[in-house]
């Protein structure tokens, strides 16, 4: 009997076809609606491979309900939605989709930085509402990016790509990371800094660290209080890294100037989240890697990892 694959979202048929030729593929029939928990639990019960997305919680319950499962192929570079310990215990391989999304996500991070610093969404919103009364000397004024200092928290592949973009804007770049990056320091002049030093010195902060027990709540009340009153915080990594309640108060009380958020503690962000009431917050629905080419590339990597495992090869992007 052909091996069974369950895909938790409707993926592009041109990619899924490579799996259908050889295996028994079942796929949740919606692109935008999350697979219901009971369907996921039912489907994994006889699946050999699971293709998941970042919105799926692949926790102990799911992994324990899947006696035949050999691989969880997660269509994301992040893998905080998967219980890696249980996967390891059960001998289930977990893969992710790095590299193909590096530049795309860095572009979005930089775009969000510009949009937040220059209040683009707020300005567009007033125009559409008919509130653009006349050119105004101090209307819509924001913060300069050129020549400012950028701090990157999490200097992985995407962090480096954002930092390289910053060089094109004549920015000084400080970074904080688990390990130093001597090659990037030598090649581009990026400077390593301890977290508190970075928070005090920079004009813009871009968070690109993975969500782990160490980074959960890493930016809270104390850290926000260290930042400049004119600072702009951008988070394109994971919501849980920033304490949203502390961020709300810091923005409301003018402790920092603005924030641009592509990610939230809870996604989709509930509409009663107080952050959404603030004009100095620019928000996006987790679209860091959302270009056609990149999403197809991520699908191809996800499918290839499943093919590799089911055909007895070592997959390229193994997490555990
Ligand atoms: C990732 O790749 O981790 C993204 O956040 C999901 O699109």
UniProtKB/TrEMBL annotation:
Ranges where the D-isomer specific 2-hydroxyacid dehydrogenase NAD-binding domain occurs: 110-288
PANTHER family named in the record: 2-HYDROXYACID DEHYDROGENASE-RELATED, GLYOXYLATE_HYDROXYPYRUVATE REDUCTASE B
GO MF annotation terms: oxidoreductase activity
Pfam families attached to this UniProt entry: 2-Hacid_dh, 2-Hacid_dh_C
Keyword set includes Oxidoreductase: yes
Protein name in UniProt: 2-hydroxyacid dehydrogenase
Keyword Hydrolase belongs to the record: no
Enzyme class: oxidoreductase
EC nos: 1.1.1.-
Cross-referenced InterPro entries: D-isomer_2-hydroxyacid_DH (IPR050223), D-isomer_2_OHA_DH_cat_dom (IPR006139), D-isomer_DH_CS (IPR029753), D-isomer_DH_CS1 (IPR029752), D-isomer_DH_NAD-bd (IPR006140), NAD(P)-bd_dom_sf (IPR036291)
Family in the record: Belongs to the D-isomer specific 2-hydroxyacid dehydrogenase family.
Keywords, ordered alphabetically: Oxidoreductase
Record domain D-isomer specific 2-hydroxyacid dehydrogenase catalytic: where: 5-319
Lineage, top ranks: Bacteria, Bacillati, Bacillota, Bacilli, Bacillales
């Amino acid at each position: 009997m052909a091996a069974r694959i369950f895909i938790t979202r409707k993926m592009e048929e041109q990619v899924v076809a490579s799996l259908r030729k050889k295996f028994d593929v079942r796929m949740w029939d919606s692109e935008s609606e999350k697979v219901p928990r009971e369907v996921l639990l039912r489907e994994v019960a006889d699946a050999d491979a699971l293709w998941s997305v970042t919105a799926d919680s692949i926790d102990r319950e799911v992994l324990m309900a899947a006696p035949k499962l050999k691989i969880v192929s997660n269509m994301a570079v992040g893998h905080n939605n998967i219980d890696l310990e249980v996967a390891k215990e059960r001998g289930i391989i977990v893969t992710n989709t790095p590299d193909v999304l590096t530049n795309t996500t860095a572009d979005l991070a930089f775009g969000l930085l510009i949009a937040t610093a220059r209040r683009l969404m707020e300005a567009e919103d007033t125009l559409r509402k008919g509130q653009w009364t006349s050119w105004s000397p101090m209307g819509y004024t924001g913060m300069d990016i050129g020549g400012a200092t950028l701090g990157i928290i999490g200097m992985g592949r995407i962090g480096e790509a954002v930092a390289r973009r910053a060089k094109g804007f004549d920015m000084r770049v400080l970074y904080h990371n688990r390990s130093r990056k001597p090659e990037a320091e030598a090649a581009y002049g990026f400077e390593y800094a301890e977290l508190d030093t970075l928070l005090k010195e920079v004009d813009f902060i871009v968070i690109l660290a993975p969500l782990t027990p160490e980074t959960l709540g890493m930016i809270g009340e104390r850290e926000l209080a260290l930042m400049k009153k004119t600072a702009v915080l951008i988070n394109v990594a994971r919501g849980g890294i920033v304490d949203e309640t502390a961020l709300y108060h810091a923005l409301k009380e003018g402790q920092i100037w603005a924030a641009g958020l592509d990610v939230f503690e809870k996604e989709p962000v509930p509409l009663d989240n107080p952050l959404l009431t603030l004009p100095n917050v620019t928000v996006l629905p987790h679209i860091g890697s959302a270009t056609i080419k990149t999403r197809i590339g991520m699908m191809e990597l996800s499918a290839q990892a499943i093919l590799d495992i089911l055909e007895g090869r070592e997959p390229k992007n193994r997490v555990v």
